[in-house]
Amino acid sequence: MAKQEDIFKNVVSHAKEYGYIFPSSEIYDGLSAVYDYAQNGVELKKNIREYWWKSMVQMHENIVGIDASIFMHPTTWKASGHVDAFNDPLIDNKDSKKRYRADVLIEDYCEKLYQKAQKEIEKAKKRFGEAFDENQFVATNPRVVGYLTRKQEILERMARGLDNGDLADVKALIEELEIADPDTGSKNWTEVRQFNLMFGTKLGASADSAMDLYLRPETAQGIFVNFLNVQKTGRMKIPFGIAQTGKAFRNEIVARQFIFRMREFEQMEMQFFVKPGEEMKYYEYWKETRLKWHLSLGMGPENYRFHDHEKLAHYANAAADIEFNFPFGFKELEGIHSRTDFDLKAHEKFSGKKLQFFDNETNTSYVPYVVETSVGLDRMFLSVFSKSLVEETLEDGSTRTVLRLPSVLAPTKATILPLVKKDGLPELAQDIIEELKWDFNVAYDEKDAVGRRYRRADALGTPFCITVDHQSLEDKTVTIRHRDTMKQDRVAIADLRNIIENEVSMKNWLKKMK
Known about the structure:
By secondary structure, the chain is α+β, with helices and mostly antiparallel strands.
């Protein structure tokens, strides 16, 4: 655990030191769980967003995008259920005075049971080698069966308690499991209570006439209320999808773990409208498709897993998370939900307007079902950044800190380095920048020895360093160094664009999904 905490601290400090993420309004001592994306962070975030948008909208003929307003009519949130049901179950520790989500405490306890089962499986794998039958072992080994059965029983009981509003039983479960405050070890808990997460605000010129509004807690409702507008103007046929990226706001009382859980965050969502009865087919399709998208970035399949929901939201008939192995363990990265026809029917009821699709082939109208994919852009950022940060020991025994960002997402694609600051080398380096900057973000660095500049580019996550030397003046060639392998090649200046493009193009990376 200590090692994981150290890794996470390194992620947070590296993000600040190298211009990725700053605490918001830091000169005024900051604001809890609010962060600013710095000069490199904003580029990485933009590239992740574009990588998602290209794969989701540009590569699908039947998916289009919108950008709905953050402010929406307040009845929107009554219809969606957020006014009445958008709550977190919170519990306070009387000794530490710290507040936690009760469901997260229980889920973390269950994760430890799962990890114990995994350790037994790994030990058996080493013991039996190629003859090991994992499925049979999981089904028959008493310890593994015990851990996994206990985990399932606990999650099912928690889900029943939350579904039925029996918060006393949720607290009883925490006490029976002897779950302690993670920081102090105290088991002195208050009752569990529900807390609504929406931020309220007002719209109007005067306090007397102002309308009560909410900052949107999700981007999905902006899609649902525009369903008919998009369908008619785009002449869309079922099945079709509407995608959106944008800010959402939740008054998270337990906001921690850096940018994993914030009060102001960004979502990348797509709502896919299907014929009733076909939703499970598309639910499975989008589960598979979204996992392929994540895997295309090369972060390693062992860092992803599916988690099926024990407690379904009020609108869903199936739900699963793609979880990622963050420095603090496996946590939700993306949700895939079969939302049924709940949202469109609710907005029909509250607005008095029909939100239906007319099928010309059958001459009938119906309210479509919806399959949702929703990934947090900030969490996506954290998953990529944290897994890319590596402390590497080299052959000569020295170490280097390298940010192995997928090159397609890297903020700066190449740094141009003149070997010395004279003899016309800086001028040729600037000429190269002038040529490359039309296609890529590139940087110039002439300070310090070349080796130190290489290390600086490695820590920034820049895939290529291009060194201009005296030979460059003679034959118009340069040395290009690859971040991950540190291999150096002599190439023609005229070939630089194609070399970089081949490595960083979204087309080449997205083709890995096929």
